[in-house]
Specification:
- It is built from 5 helices and 8 strands; from the N terminus they run βααβαββββαββα.
- It has helices spanning about 15-20, 25-40, 55-70, 145-155, 180-185; strands spanning about 5-15, 45, 75-85, 95-100, 110, 130-135, 155-160, 175.
- It is globular.
- The two termini are about 15 Å apart.
- The structure holds zinc ion.
- The site of zinc ion has 5 residues, from loops.
- Zinc ion binds near residues 13, 15, 113 and 162.
C-alpha cells in the first residue's frame, strides 16, 4: 500500500499492449511488466497505448488493470488509459497527442505527450502535465518552452519512457506523491471527454 505523502516513481507513458505485439491481455505480459518495473526500480505505470490501434482500446487497458490488481495485488500502481490524437482548436489540420488515464479516485489525468510532435504548435486544453523528457522523442521537445508552459498553466512536468518494448518501461520516470496526481485529476462528470462513458470508475 502507498503511505500518505510518500513519493512514487512513475512512468506515465507506456505502450504495454503494443509491447506484447497486440496480444490479448495476459497474466504472462503483466508478469513481465512487473518484473521490468522491479528491475528498474519504479513503483508504477500508466498504460497509454494508441487508441487508433483498436476501437475498444480502453477496454483492453482496463482488462490489463484487472489482471494486475487480481493476480499481482499491491505489486505496482497501474493507471489504465490510452494515448489519443487531438485536433487543435484553431486549426483542424494540426494535431497533438495526449495520454489520458484514470486515477484510483476515478478522476482522469491528462499528460501532453512529446510537445512539438506531431504539431510544433502547442495547445493546452484540460491538461494536467506536460512531457519535458521522452526517451524516444526528445529531439522534438523545446525544454525552455515546456518549462514556460508548465509555469503558465500550472502543469506537472513529466519524464516518460514512451516504451513500446517491455525492456524500455521505466527508462524515464517522475517522483511524485500520489496525492499530487489525485488532487489535480479531472472530474469526468463535469467534463465531457469522449470515450470514457463506460469507464467512470475502477
Ligand atoms: Zn506514446
Amino acid at each position: 500500500m502507498v503511505n500518505k505523502g510518500e513519493k512514487l516513481k512513475l512512468d506515465l507513458h507506456t505502450h504495454i499492449w503494443e509491447a506484447s505485439s497486440f496480444e490479448k491481455p495476459s497474466i504472462d505480459t503483466a508478469y513481465k511488466v512487473i518484473n521490468q518495473c522491479k528491475k528498474i526500480g519504479i513503483d508504477g505505470i500508466a498504460i497509454t497505448d494508441h487508441d487508433h490501434a483498436h476501437p475498444e482500446l480502453l477496454k483492453i487497458s482496463f482488462e490489463y488493470y484487472k489482471i494486475f490488481t487480481k493476480h499481482f495485488p499491491n505489486e505496482i500502481v497501474v493507471f489504465p488509459g490510452r494515448e489519443i490524437e487531438l485536433h487543435m482548436k484553431h486549426d483542424y489540420f494540426q494535431t497533438y497527442e495526449v495520454g489520458e488515464f484514470m486515477l484510483p479516485n476515478g478522476k482522469l489525468f491528462r499528460n501532453y505527450c512529446h510537445p512539438g510532435h506531431p504539431s510544433q504548435q502547442i495547445e493546452i486544453n484540460h491538461i494536467q502535465s506536460i512531457e519535458v523528457n521522452n526517451s524516444i522523442h526528445n529531439w522534438h521537445i523545446n525544454k525552455n518552452q515546456v518549462y514556460e508552459l508548465a509555469d503558465k498553466h500550472n502543469l506537472i512536468l513529466t519524464e516518460v519512457s514512451d516504451a513500446h518494448e517491455i525492456n524500455d518501461i521505466g527508462k524515464n520516470y517522475i517522483e511524485i506523491p500520489l496525492e499530487d496526481l489525485l488532487s489535480s485529476g479531472i472530474d469526468l462528470n463535469k467534463l465531457q471527454i469522449q470515450g470514457w462513458e463506460n469507464h467512470r470508475s475502477i
